[in-house]
Amino acid sequence: MLACDSDPQVRMKEDRMKVTGSCFCGDIRFEGEVNENAIGVCHCRDCQIFSGSAFRLSCGADPTLFKFTQGTPSYFDKSTDSGRVRRMAFCGRCGTHLASLPASERDYGYVSIRIACTDQFDQITPRVEVFCKSRVKWMEPLQGSEEFDEMPDMAILGEDQ
Ligand SMILES: [Zn+2]
């Protein structure tokens, strides 16, 4: 199954923004710093299933600045096509998905915050759409957002690592 977490996270010009967030029931809280240019809509099948919706909004975040500030999330380790593992963090009580994290040092080192549960949600605009090849047929492309069939090559997005 093709999924966004099976590829390296998009790396773009950094415009950093501090975010805080929580699950629906409030047991778990987190904070982090996101790259506003990496706020994206993902149409991959895994995101559709995990979100229970047509797509998921996520944003790449610096793992050294991300932390859970209240409560302890539950985890589900999801294997990807590449053999790497992503650790999905969610609230064990209300089920809200909060973030995905690297499962070990050999896995991609980024955090992906599920933007809908941040307190800054109303300030956020998606900049990219990824895995458009599995976008639902009844949805139009988003205005002002760059489209990619799968996960774009980092070079396309103008960032050297
Ligand atoms: Zn909860």
Low-pLDDT runs of 5+ residues are: 6-11, 154-161
In the CATH hierarchy, the third-tier topology is known as: Metal Binding Protein, Guanine Nucleotide Exchange Factor, Chain A
What's the helical proportion of residues? under 10%
CATH architecture: Beta Complex
The unique ligands bound to this protein are: zinc ion
- The tally of beta strands, per DSSP, is 10
> Could you say how many structural domains there are in total?
1
Q: Give the H and E element order.
A: EEHEEEEEEEE
The average pLDDT value, as a whole number, equals 85
**What's the end-to-end separation, in Å?**
27 Å
**Oligomeric organization of the protein chains:** single chain
Q: Overall 3D geometry?
A: globular
Number of helices: 1
At the first level of CATH, the class is Mainly Beta
List the helices and strands and how they pair.
Blueprint: E1 16-22, E2 29-42, H1 45-51, E3 56-61, E4 67-70, E5 74-79, E6 85-90, E7 97-102, E8 111-114, E9 128-130, E10 146-147
Parallel strand pairs: 2-9, 9-10
Antiparallel strand pairs: 1-2, 2-3, 2-4, 3-8, 5-6, 6-7, 7-8
Zinc ion binds next to loops.
Task: Describe it.
By secondary structure, the protein is mainly beta. It has one domain: Metal Binding Protein, Guanine Nucleotide Exchange Factor, Chain A. It has 1 helix and 10 strands, in the order ββαββββββββ. Strands 1, 2, 3, 4, 5, 6, 7, 8, 9 and 10 form a 10-stranded mixed beta sheet that branches. The longest helix is centred in the first third of the chain and has 7 residues, at about 45-50. The chain starts with 15 loop residues before the first strand and ends in a 14-residue tail after the last strand. Residues about 5-10 and about 155-160 have low confidence and may be disordered. Zinc ion binds near residues 23, 25, 28 and 94.
